[in-house]
Amino acid sequence: MWKTINNGGRDGAYWTEGEGKAVILIHGFAEDHSVWEHQTAFLRNHYRVLVPDLPGTGRSQLTTPLSIESMAEFIYEILVAEAISQVTLIGHSMGGYVALAFAEKYPHLLEGLGLFSSTAKPDSEEKKEGRQKSIRMISQYGLESFFRQMLPSMFAADFRTRQAPMIENYIQQALTSGTTEGAIAYYEAMMARPDRTEVLKTIKVPVLFFIGKEDQAVPVDNALSQVIMPAVASIHLFDQVGHMGLLEVYEESNLILHHFVAFCQHSS
């Protein structure tokens, strides 16, 4: 069911279903809650699953100024509204940045942290230049033109060939749920985020790393350099998978998340 809370004077929406221990799945850039549809449908049979639309996406209104930290506060407000004292937090891509910001401020609320095709490292200067170029493209050519050029590259080459209709559906969903203003705000928030590798080095709960070898957004070397940082890590490295493993290998992703959440709960 959909629920809405006051998020800094704006509507903040999230979907929730299932019972038991709490799991929050946080979507990334150019996505909304529905990117987790396979995982939600699977995990709801075992857990209480909450899937927000981040501010500026879908049913959640954009808050200004938007930052990774303000989005983490939105996640915290969901926990308060739901009276949840312990949660396993899983973030895809930009959602991982939000999960890390939450972990930095509210470590006592975590049972586990999942970085799904994400990184604790800040943007390099090259990455920032790329995001600035993307902002210029969005402003000049519009969101649809930009998404059609950018989003297919989020998938592995073989998957792009075999699953063109799924990728088109992904693009359509991005266009339905996103706005030009929101996309630019997300890029600016991502560029401004700090290095959070220290969070991984000091975290007391298990950390999940899902890594696709063909991920162009978070290169495999970037991700692998972080897996030794936490005291306890669950590491999953996939051949022929890009940035969108939660769709590309969704059945494997479902099981990985299920086992990770169960492990975190037994460890706490």
Automatic annotation (TrEMBL):
InterPro entries: AB_hydrolase_1, AB_hydrolase_fold, AB_hydrolase_sf. GO terms for cellular component: membrane. SUPFAM superfamilies: alpha/beta-Hydrolases (SSF53474). Residues 22-245 form the AB hydrolase-1 domain. One of its GO terms (molecular function) is hydrolase activity. Transmembrane segments: none annotated. Pfam families: Abhydrolase_1. Keywords: Hydrolase. This is Alpha/beta fold hydrolase. It comes from Chitinophaga lutea. The lineage of its organism: Bacteria, Pseudomonadati, Bacteroidota, Chitinophagia, Chitinophagales.
